[in-house]
What we know:
Helix content: 40-55%
CATH superfamily of the largest domain: Regulatory factor, effector binding domain
Largest sheet: 8 strands, antiparallel
Radius of gyration: 19 Å
CATH architecture of the largest domain: Alpha-Beta Barrel
CATH class of the largest domain: Alpha Beta
Shape: globular
Number of domains: 2
Mean pLDDT: 88
Strand order of the largest sheet: 1-6-9-8-3-4-2-5
Amino acid sequence: MKKDxxxxxxxxxxxLMHYIYENIDSQINLDTLSEDFHLSKFHLHRxxxxxxxxxxxxxxxxxxxxxxxxxxxTNKNSTISEIxxxxxxxxxxxxxxxxxARFGMSPKKWRKGGFIEYSNKIINEVPKELISNRDYSxxxxxIKKMPSVTVYYIRHHGYSEEIKxxxxxxxxxxxxxxxxxxxxxxxxxxxxxxxxxxxxNYVACLSIExxxxxxxxxxxxxxxxxxxxxxxxxxxxxDDILKLVQWIYxxxxxxxxYETTNKPPFLIYDENNFLNEDGFFSLxxxxxxxxx
Length: 292
């Protein structure tokens, strides 16, 4: 019974978190959420706090500001007002006030280079062994239309070696059910160069082509967004992935003629560094794009 209750709680809170990410550009009404999830607002808050050690309101606010901080860097042709609206703020004034409180500077100063100062503070707190010197500047993307796909997943708060446990659990599921045709997908909700690694939200996912075993899956699921993406093929070891993300967001994207959206980037592994003894990865990284 306790196991069933825990699984139900995990499913509800994961579904709620997915809803927040999918609707971060709009006003999220907790009264409506309470009706949709057939739970009181008090109970929603309680189980969310138990699962994520954060309350719903603060989580929504944090996600809005993280999205905005990224878009201010990458989407040079979007006004501050447009970005605040894209991230769900009803007024530019409330957005500027919240941004100042979170990052210690105005959105305008952030956009004009203040993010570099902020990012350097983040990088200085990263253990030296996690700082990569790999050069990805010669990568050229392929522009692709990616279909929507159902993924089964485990969420992880923080970017650390603990992510390995998520992938091991998913691998155990694959081996136990003799599933042959699947893809390993990682979703990066946060830019680890402007978000402390301990605060980054990471999702380890499986896309499964074998449909005969669907009834055995007790993992939560959602639809990964279809859309137009820039695809980067890359290889490296362990935290070279962070260097790849940094280069794409801070160097390639601002000068590419494209802008990104508030949908998360993701990668598809050919070889997963969290499951390889030597930490080697081979992957394709996908960032959603629109013409600037």
